[in-house]
Amino acid sequence: MVNFVEAQKPLLKRLMRMAGLRPVDVEIEPGTTMHIWVPKHHVSKKSGTIRPVVEHGGVDGDGEKAGAAKRKKSAAESRPNVVLVHGFAAEGIVTWQFNFGVLVSRYNLYIPDLLFFGKSATASADRSPELQARCVAAALARLGVARCDVVGFSYGGMVAFKLAETRPDLVRSLAVSGSVVAMTDAVNSATMTRLGATSSAELLMPETLKGLKQLLSISMYKKMWFPDRFYKDYLKAMFNNRKERMELLQGLITSNMDAKIPTFQQKIMLIWGEEDKIFDIELAKKMKEQLGDGCFLHGIPKAGHLLHVERPCAYNRQLQRFLSYVNSEEKEAAGGGAN
Question: In terms of residue numbers, what domain contains 15?
Answer without folding.
Answer: 4-43+76-332
